Structure formats: C-alpha cells, structure tokens
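Table S2 (continued). Query chain:
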Amino acid sequence: EQLYLSPKRAYANYKEMIKCESELPEGDRMDFVAIVTPNHLHFEPAKLAMESGFHVICDKPISFNTVQAIELENISNETGMEFALTHTYTGYPMVKQAANMVKAGKFGKIRKVVVEYPQGWLSLPLEQDKSNKQAAWRADPSKSGKAGAVGDIGTHAANLAETISGLKIVELAADVSKVVKGRALDDDANILVRFNNGAKGVLHCSQICAGDVNDVNIRLWGEKGGLEWHQHVPNTMTVKWLDQPDQVYRTGMGYMDSQSAANTRTPGGHPEGYLEAFANLYHNFIKVVRQRISGKSFSEIKERDFPMIQDGIRGMKFIDAVIDSGDNNAAWTIIG
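Corresponding output:
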C-alpha cells in the first residue's frame, strides 16, 4: 500500500501473491516477480513463480547453494520462463563498452585481469546488533549460505571479470579469512585465478577494508593494451596502449558502441550511476518479457542484455571453489 498498490493486491506473503495473481486473467495479472530477499529466500519464491507461469528477476547470489541453482535452471528450462539475475555492475554502459572492445580484439589475447571489491562496513561486528538487519543476515550461515564476503561481493567481482574479459575462471587458489573475532562467515578473501585461455588474474574481496565504500574496480591487459574502470567514476574508462598515449572514454559520447549507447540514459557529462545500472537490467529484462507476452518463444529471442541463470550457477560454483580452497590452505581448486 505504501507503493500505491491497490489494497486488493497488497499481499501478506509471496505464496498468497503468486496464487492470487495467477488466478487473474491475462492482462490483469503481474508479468514477472522481482525477488529482493536474503539469499535463503530466493529459491522457493523463484521456483513457485516459474511453476505458476511468471518470469523472474532475482538478486544474487541466485540461491542458497549450488544444488538449488541447478534446480532453478531445470525449472526455467521446463517452464520456459525467463530468469534474470541482478549483477548490477554489468548494467553500466562503460562495462558493456569494455566487454565489446575486448570481444572485438582491440587488445589482442587477454593475459591478465585484476579485479577488486573492497568494503569497510563490516570492520566491526555489526551483526551482533540484531537491529542491523543487513549485517545480521549477511553474517548468518543459515541465511547467507556457506560464504560471507565471497558470496556477497566476491561473486560480483568474479562476474565483472568474466563479463568484461569474455573468459571463464576455471581454477583458483583462495586465502579466505574471518578477520573480525567471533564472525561465523568470511569477511576477507585474496584469490589467484586462472582463466580458460591461459590468462592469470587476481581477485580480492573484503568487508574489513575500513574506510572503503563499494570500491569495485577492474584492470585488464592484453597483448596490445588494456583498460581500467572504477565504479566510483562509472562514466569514465581509461584505455591504455603499448605504443600510444592513454585514452579516456566517457559515457554518452558518439564514439561509444551501440550497446553502450542503448544503455545510456543522460547526455555526456551528466552523472549516471548505480540506480541507472540497476534500471538498465530491469529495462532490458522487461523488453524480453514484453516479447514473450506478445507470443515469442524463448528460442525466438536472440539477444538478452542481462545476466541469466547460467551466470547464477557460475557464481555458486565460484563460491564452492573459493570456500573449498580456503578450507584446504589455499590449494588450487577447479571450478566444477
């Protein structure tokens, strides 16, 4: 009701909502379900929604564990329902520009990727104050799953590295820590990664970097040059060349590629950021949902400009490999 929904369609829980909405005629019922709950409350609503004929867009990580993620993929395949995953940073126009430049071979074969996601908000044991709901559930294994920082922000870093590089992380060695005394889940991880083309990389994620606030950033190098992008200044990317001066790319300019331009919402030089990146994911997902409503089948739609269920499964397998490696003194571990 606070969102100005009709009281008749303000439901007490997701089960009631999905049941009642599915009984409404087409054109009146909701078109998709957005799941923005803690990790342990992703699987059941997503499963019920797809089985009831509703498309789903869900926060990451996709589920509580890998078994649930794979089951969601099976349900999506069986029902033909669309499933989008909100890896927010992939919604930035400059991330799309970077990925397309790599894909076009501008930098030659990719050799090295360094991606970071430092935060400082859990430098103190905030989860012990139960009124801090965000800290409480994220540090609780029964709600977050087997990982803390690795699941919360490490998966973002891994997804960003794979999205821009176009490569897959196939093996890793992870030094995983619980720095804050008494904390049940990891709050810091330093990871060496190997990609499927032979490239090497470094990924670090941490929630005990006091003073840092969501400082997601990535550097990537190929044979001919590389790039650098920081989420704090998302409209700017530095492109570096072996034999030329650095170049500065800015969102909203005419030299941006068509996909980046399609995800740009303001004229060049005007601030555009996190909320717009989120909005781009929803916008691109809704475009596909509209095509499905118009009668197109899953296979008839060729382009989906948003992370999908397969990205969610990769995220869960990344978590599994990192935690396994950390439990085995940073042993090299293959991502299943």
